[in-house]
Specification:
Elements lengths: L2 H15 L2 H10 L7 H21 L2 H23 L2
Helix pairs in contact: 1-4, 2-4, 3-4
Length: about 80
């Protein structure tokens, strides 16, 4: 693995875990009323497009990052719908 690939994966990891505190907060408080549904839907669409792009160009960092962000975004969407 090259240094550039390691850099991309490290950046992707850090970017992806920025969603973790929000997921934990909503899970603990059981409240997602202040979370914008439109923002979540747009985020999921954008992440799906990035993931598709990453798969087409076979870029591990893009695939890894957007898979993690998609998973957390879908969890947030689930919480938004469940804990109105």
């Amino acid at each position: 693995m090259s240094l550039i690939q390691i850099l991309g994966l490290a950046a992707g990891t850090i970017t992806s875990i920025t969603f973790l505190p929000q997921v934990i907060h909503i899970w603990k408080t059981k409240s997602a009323k202040d979370l914008s549904l439109m923002m979540l839907l747009l985020l999921i669409l954008g992440v799906l497009l990035w993931l598709t792009y990453g798969l087409l160009v076979m870029d591990a960092a893009i695939i890894y990052t957007n898979s993690m962000v998609l998973a957390m975004s879908l969890i947030l969407l689930y919480f938004k719908l469940r804990f109105k």
